[in-house]
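Continuing from yesterday's entry. The apo prediction looked reasonable, so today I'm repeating it with NAP included to see how the binding region is handled. Same sequence as before; SMILES copied from the compound registry.
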Amino acid sequence: TSRCSSWVYKRERNHRSDCQHPLDHQKSKRVPENHLFLTLYLSMDPYMRCRMNEDTGKNTNFTKGDFVTSFYWPWQTKVILDGNILEKVDPQLVDGHLSYFLEAIGMPGLTYLIGVQEKSHITAGSNQTMVVSGAAGACGSLAGQIGHLLGCSKVVGICGTPEKCLFLTSELGFDAAINYKEGNVAEQLHKLCPAGVDVYLNNVGGDISDTVISQMNQNSHIILCGQISQYNKDVPYPPLHPAIEAIQKERNITRERFLVLNYKDKFEFGILQLSQWFKEGKLKIKETRINGLENMGAAFQSMMTGGNIGKQIVYLNTA
Ligand SMILES: NC(=O)c1ccc[n+]([C@@H]2O[C@H](COP(=O)([O-])OP(=O)(O)OC[C@H]3O[C@@H](n4cnc5c(N)ncnc54)[C@H](OP(=O)(O)O)[C@@H]3O)[C@@H](O)[C@H]2O)c1
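Holo prediction written out below.
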């Protein structure tokens, strides 16, 4: 099983040890410099489910009190890590809300800032309609806001409860939201998007995606970010149903798989942009917190089954 996670943590003091990799503290290969860190927040992400299917630098000098983040973090309250896998973060960028480095001012925010910029072909003023599935989650809740900020005229979210729908429209500025567990999604979507869908931010795959793709316009674009409805299957990125694939081809709909980690050169600028929007009040950030390392499993399960609004975070320690 995976014991990896993104995290925000604080360096406690210099420490040398024989640990080389956070995943295997039993290995005894020396590395030049390790550091002891206190875990503050642990991130719950759907990609962890995919890592569970199989076991699967630059060295920075840290000083006491530095805050850092990384993808490779064990579920522990304190940990000794090789500095090569760490990124230093500046608390001023999040006005001291350190957990935001795991959400809007971190990987989920970057996913859709870069995803929309690179793949959506949005042109401000051209009256485009965007649909976001998984819209009330960590990535989705930011995606719709970023869609508006980058020039989309209409943003419709699809998510799993009426409370989430209300949150999207009343708090985050989505133009409309559909609860996919109630009523006919295709009919509701058609009413809300009579001119069709120009950009689809796909977080869930499965039937919801098939319904959206069926209503996409000629030369429109899918950002294939994730397919959480398929993650408990053996193939987390299964091919489209042949009938839907035929629609995609006929209408020349682009559908390339998007992976934020392929755009590391854009991270630095992206974080500054997201931080600026957050400080200007243009990007609203929501998280669902659970306390304590002992509740990591419950937090993961809850996130995978819709218990979260915004980012699912596990809180461990105060800085
Ligand atoms: N490509 C990349 O670089 C990249 C980066 C980050 C994340 N992702 C992907 O983006 C997606 C969202 O990630 P996240 O971190 O923002 O998670 P999240 O949306 O905060 O949490 C997962 C949400 O998925 C929904 N869900 C669960 N099962 C579902 C199903 N069968 N059908 C429809 N919705 C379902 C639930 O909300 P409801 O109540 O609405 O069901 C749940 O709250 C995931 O697929 C993830 O793998 C991709």
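Comparison notes:
- The two ends are 29 Å apart (CA to CA).
- The pocket of NAP is lined by residues 45-47, 107-108, 111, 134, 136-140, 159-161, 164, 203-204, 206, 208, 225-229, 258-260, 303-304, 306, 308, 312 (CB under 6 Å).
Will overlay with the apo model tomorrow.
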